[in-house]
Amino acid sequence: MSACTFTDRGVRSGLRQKRALGEFILRMVKSYTRREAVLSYVFVDDETLLDMNRQYLQHDTYTDIITFDLSVASSPVLIGDIYISIDRVRENAESMGIRLSDERLRVILHGALHLSGFGDKTAKQQAEMRQLEEKWMKKFLSRSAH
After folding, report:
1. What is the pLDDT at residue 145?
2. Measured between alpha carbons, how far is 9 from 30 in angstroms, rounded to an integer?
3. Predicted TM-score (pTM) of this structure
4. By Cβ atoms counted within 10 A, which residue in 9, 54, 60, 80 is the most buried?
């Protein structure tokens, strides 16, 4: 009963290979959590995510992603809503001199890794998160290159 959806809300994410990426993410999450998952990715603009950051997290800053774990702890199904600012992803890609598609994939995987139990509050957690993002990006890109 797993599902992974991608929706553009008032923006154009330019995301391709949605079915393959969704299936890949579900396998990745299951490898860590041993749970089926229902994940919803929603691409929005900076202002929408800023409003959500203020409302739900009491943070008055722009961000590229907000992840909500909507699961019930005892449930065999992981449920998550992941909101991504395509404006912020585009700006981050430009400032880092990388392709938009690579930064968009990194952020998408970042949300799924959060739902899989990985944090990024400390420097050690951030380093581990970055390693995992890189590992899974390489796996996805190498399998989709065939």
Report:
1. 57
2. 27
3. 0.95
4. 80
